[in-house]
Write a structure and sequence with these properties.
Strand order of the largest sheet: 5-4-3-2-1-11-12-13
Distance between the termini: 13 Å
Shape: globular
Helix content: 25-40%
Radius of gyration: 18 Å
Largest sheet: 8 strands, mixed
Structural class: alpha/beta
Number of strands: 13
């Protein structure tokens, strides 16, 4: 079994997965590898990258907060009401930018796309609608975007006292928030108990999956990790495809 992150792992700058990589992943499947995709994107935003070539695969979205299983979308856990109320209060108090998702709809306010680099990844197929935060009944994931440098650590400390899972992205000055103990690994284990797997990822939200994998693959050089079987791969589609073509024959 092979578990692939999307952005920065097999999709670069939000672009479609290259034909060479699609072919290499299909070659893995032809060799009886089960392929799972695990992304920070909600299912809605994974579809533009995967629907054409991998429509029937298992998807883990929203850093583990939602899945697509046998064609059906299922929320795994929502952010509790107390935590969500506090997040809304932070947004109001500090006039923060944000992206908040429920199972299908979203609330987005982004005044610095040059830093956030997220607009093109949200609802690219125009399947949903940007709504007011109050209209999101069951929020599964929140990203606080474009946090001012002086507020990043302060907000992180405040959020740490609530029952939520946090992933920090200092490069884009953002914080991912999901329900407590919800991440890519916990959701993977929920559906694939005791299954060994190979993991491919590039970011902090991939660390749990990478650490617990049989063989870990880090794309690019943004992560350091201790693992007994770790391979670093170049952050380009051609190099990864070449590796996977060899990997499928091992």
């Amino acid at each position: 079994m092979d578990v692939f992150d999307l952005d920065g792992t097999i999709s670069f700058q939000g672009a479609q997965i290259s034909p060479a990589l699609v072919a290499a992943i299909h070659k893995l499947e032809a060799q009886h590898h089960t392929v799972v995709f695990a992304s920070a994107r909600p299912i809605r935003d994974m579809l533009p990258l995967l629907k054409k070539d991998f429509e029937n695969n298992f998807y883990i979205g929203g850093n583990g907060s939602i899945v697509k299983n046998d064609g059906k979308i299922e929320s795994i856990a929502v952010i509790d009401s107390e935590s969500m109320s506090f997040i809304k209060a932070l947004i109001d108090q500090y006039d923060l930018d944000y992206l908040i998702d429920d199972e299908w709809y979203y609330a987005l306010k982004n005044r610095n796309e040059a830093l956030a680099q997220i607009n093109s990844k949200v609802d690219a197929l125009k399947l949903s609608q940007n709504v007011a935060i109050e209209k999101l009944k069951n929020p599964i994931k929140c990203i606080l975007l474009n946090l001012p440098e002086g507020l990043f650590a302060q907000i992180a400390t405040l959020l740490a006292s609530f029952p939520v899972e946090l992933v920090f992205h200092e490069g884009t000055s953002s914080i991912d928030i999901t329900a407590k103990n919800i991440n890519k690994l916990t959701t993977f284990k929920k559906f694939f108990t005791n299954q060994t797997y190979n993991a491919f990822g590039n970011d902090h939200n991939d660390v749990s999956l990478l650490k617990s994998s049989q063989k870990a693959h880090i794309i690019g050089n943004s992560l350091t990790l201790k693992h007994s079987d770790l391979t670093y791969l170049p952050a380009n589609a051609e190099g990864i495809a070449a590796y996977l073509n060899e990997f499928s024959t091992k």
